[in-house]
Amino acid sequence: MDSRGLHHATCKAQEARGDRVNRGMKGLGLKATLILLGVGGVIALPTSIVLRSSATAAIAPATRRVTQLPRDDEDVQVERAARLAHARATPTPTVAAPATAAAPTAAATRATPPPPPRVAGTVPSFSHVFVIVMENHEYDSVIGNPAAPYTNGLVTSYGLATNYFAASHPSLPNYLALTAGSTFGIASDCTTCFVSATNIADQVEGSGRSWKAYMEDMPVPCYRGASSGNYAMKHDPFMYYNDIRNNAARCAAHVAPFTQFWVDMSTGVVPAFVWITPNMCNDTHDCPVGTGDAWLRSVVPTITHSAAFRNGGVLFITWDEGASSAGCCSGSWGGHVATLVIAPNAIGGFRSGTPENHYGLLRTIEDGFHLGHLGAAGWTSNLPLREYFRN
User: Fold this and answer.
1) How many whole angstroms from its chain centre is CA 291?
2) What is the count of structural domains for the chain?
């Protein structure tokens, strides 16, 4: 073969080898491409899942928090601190339901406390209010005691608060709580600790109604001494309010010896608000329960037979404090005491287990006279005694 033929053959062989190499490279490229696509798909799939999950989480609605309302008795702790290191309170959170809402889940149901049971009835309007305050006995030493047949007879005919508590100890703070909605930080039976504060007498007089406080064994109207015989100023809250004790004419016209009670009842000139404090024996402070029961028997019928009582009146008989430190709402810890609700429209023989206290009794009087609430009487934890009346 000549040199030209040899050169031609050599070129053909080189081209053939090049084609095979190119085809091999193309095959390898195709395989690499397929491998990369496969790996990309494997990577892309979980990535898309993660991204989709993140996006879903980002747009999910936030869980709504229910914020509990603050307790409404924080400011009473200063008053109670001198006598008790802690006080109990009843928060009243309220969560408004939306107009259209899905059925609550089990978790939501567990998270939201059930609403408190509704107390039936409302406080009716009162034409006259009579209040008698007895002394220093726990509920069980009066209710069911055979030495108090008259008191227990009243219980069968009218209403009885079976879960009622005094505000504090000793006597004086309870009298202030009953008439002004606060103990004013007083933790003794002091006789010079006067206060400048609006009280139930101010409210009643400001509404155009009349009032009078009858004090057994008070020697003269508006007596300013600490005691006289069986009279004790610590059981006469009206002599602690400066706007009464320092106004001689007003005080003498409204804070009177108990003998004036019989005159006013017999003549029919009965104030709209009547407060009665028996002497230290008849209120059972210094004498047995039977003595106080006999005194009630001699006084209560005069009230219940009067036109003032029969035509929209009400009589509350309570005990200022007990012998224990039992308590309930708003830091009340003055002991478990009996309280009778006596009215022409009272539910006969009714007994209420609702937790109640002196502040709630003041609130009841204010509601029946359509007055504002003084101090702790306005707190939602201090309920009015409204369930005892027919409506």
Assistant:
1) 35
2) 1
